[in-house]
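Hey, resending since the last one bounced:
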Amino acid sequence: MSSSHQKKIVDNYYQNHDTIQSDKLSQIVSDLWLAEEGTNKT
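The structure tokens again:
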């Protein structure tokens, strides 16, 4: 049985799911770009 606090946390997560996923994707793209920059310097 979940408390109302836990329900609010889960509801908030799903309300912001698109933003959370977008932020994760942005971080991955940034990491890939930085990794490429490091390999292109010769």
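The helical segments are 4-15, 17-40.

Sorry for the duplicate.
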